[in-house]
Each structure stands twice: as structure tokens, then as C-alpha cells.
Amino acid sequence: MTSPSYPVTTASLAQEAGVSQSTVSLALRNDPRVRESTRLRIQALAEERGYVPDPALSALVAYRARTRKAGDFGKIAVLHDFDRKESGFPVPLRQQVAGMRERARHLGYDVELFRVYPDQSGSMRLSSVLHARGIRGLVLLALRMPTLFMRWEHFSAVVIGEYFSEPRLNHVNHHQGTILNTIYAELRSLGYRRIGFCNIGISEERKHHIYLGTYLKCLWLDGIPVEDSPPLFYDEAADWSPVPWIRRHKFDAVMTMFPMAFLEKLKGTRYRVPQNLGLAGYSVPLQGSEYPCSGYAIDHHRMGAAAVDMVQSMIHQGRRGVPRENELSDLYIRGQWVHGKTTRAQ
């Protein structure tokens, strides 16, 4: 790159490239409406001439995007695979969608939910519909399917929550290792010494066993053999009970994904929470000042807002399609330990 002796502008680049100024602007934003060979030629010329965007002009463009409605072109699609309306989503996901809507409104976008289906033909039809409507931004909301077939080259897409397998996309989530470390340390500080770990099997797989790995590390640091404190994994659809596991290994506290559902499994048994068993959740929705359950509280509203911010940034930069491995971005939203009614000092 050479240092320019005069200000390099989109107008001067347009004159040298023999195209219109609007074509240069679109090419520098990697807009697909400009032929790829032309985009690459203009981008190479801009690099050679030392062009840099005017930050004041970039701010003006962002301001105009926030204050002007643009129909479906200014819409972000939120994809989910639930067979129910938004009001029936789990609380954390409803909070995420609320965060998306609020942030999108501030940025001049609308949010619309679309259900996706596991078959390839259905998801490809949805891809065509979204592209035909001019929708460029996608947020994938905790999809439970292993893969999704879309024409990804048309979209700036972000996954929020758990990963699905393919393709790998930019991602907003909470950090599972931090969560387990925090809960384990807080339970230890309360005096609990036999701390069990329970999770849904499929959830553990989707999180690449980060929860499990962190738990095993905590046991190792405390000198506890894993055979004395084995994790419990269960299938949501199966009839299961944690009682034999608790009784056999003499746990005085349990960490679990869904503590309120776990409490239901203890009804009618000799275990009373928190009288003779502590219970902590590792995905407690952030709410008010009183918590029915102790655990790690996550600001799902902020996660949703962060996903929209990431999508908007990708749209403005012309970043579409599946990122290369070394270009993937993972944004982790930290939470906090909250002391609820399911733990007490020992």
C-alpha cells in the first residue's frame, strides 16, 4: 500500500476504476449486488491507494439506518425449531427474544420469528423466502437440530446459545466453564463438600462436554476420585430418578441445569431442599432481587441484544456466509452467582 499524497475518496476511486461512486461504496461493503470480479478489483484498488473510510460518514450511515424504516430489508429473522408460539418458549429464550427486539428497535430494525424444520427441502424453501424478501440478518435461537441447510452466502448469521453441529457460525453465549467454576466455588464456600453434577445428556453433548470437563477438574483439584462422585446424565423423555444416585454417593449438594424440575423429582423422598440437600442451577434467568433457586444467573436479555449487535456489524461490513475457522467470533456474556432458597450455610 502506498501513502496517498491527496485524500483518497470513493469519488476518486470511482473515477480511476471507471465505475459509479455508488458501485464503489457497495463494493467496499462487499455487497453481492456488485459482480464479484468488480468487487475484488475495486477492493484491491482501494487497498493499493491507501483508502480508509471516513469515521464521521460511517457514523452518519449508521444513524440513518437507525432512523429510517426499510421494510424487510431492515428486518432480522430469528430462526427457531419449537412447535409452539413465542409465549410458550422457555423463559431464558423469551428473555433473549425480548432483548433482540429492544436492541433491534434502537438500531432501526424489526425482528420476526420463523420456525425451521429438520428436513433439507423445508429449510431451503425458508432460505429462498428470506432472501426474496431482502432479509439479510439471521439469529439462530438454540436450535436443537444438528445441522441446517441454508444458502448461507446470502446471510449474516449468528448463533445464540447452544451450538448445533454444522455449519460453524459466529456465536453469542455464556461460558460454561466459568459457570461451573463459580457454582462449585460458591457451594464450597457455604460448606458443602459432596457436590454432585447432573445434566441432560444431549445438552452436555451440544456444549462439547465443557460442563463435565470443568466438574472433573474441580474434583481433581479437591482430591476427589471421580468414581466417588460420578456425574449423572439423563434423557428428558425417559422416566428417571436422581434419588439412588444421591443416596449411593452421599451428596450434600447438586448442580443441575434445571433445578426446579430436579426438585419435582425429589417430592415424596427423604431429601428436603435446602434442609439436607443443597441445589444450584447453572442457567438461572436474571430477575429482580429474589431468587427461588440458587445458582448462576445469566442476563439472557443482554445475550439477545449482543446477538443483534453482532448481526448488524456483519451486515454493515458485508460479512456473509460461513466464516473460515480463523475468522469465527465467540462472544461470551458473563453472569453472576445468586443466593436463593435452595442453599444455606452448612
Summary, kept brief:
The chain has 3 domains: 1-46, 434 Repressor (Amino-terminal Domain) (Orthogonal Bundle); 71-174 and 302-332, 3-Layer(aba) Sandwich (Rossmann fold); 176-299, Response regulator (Rossmann fold, 3-Layer(aba) Sandwich).
What's the number of structural domains?
Answer: 3
List the secondary-structure elements in sequence, H or E.
HHHHEHEHEEEHEHHEHEHEEHEE
**Structural Rg:** 25 Å
Mean pLDDT: 86
Uncertain segments of ≥5 residues (pLDDT<50)?
A: none
- CATH class of the largest domain reads Alpha Beta
* Percent range for β-strand residues: 15-25%
What's the arrangement of strands in the largest beta sheet? 2-1-3-4-5-11
Proportion of helical residues: 25-40%
Q: Structural class from helices and strands?
A: alpha/beta
N-C termini distance: 66 Å
What summary fits the major beta sheet?
6 strands, parallel
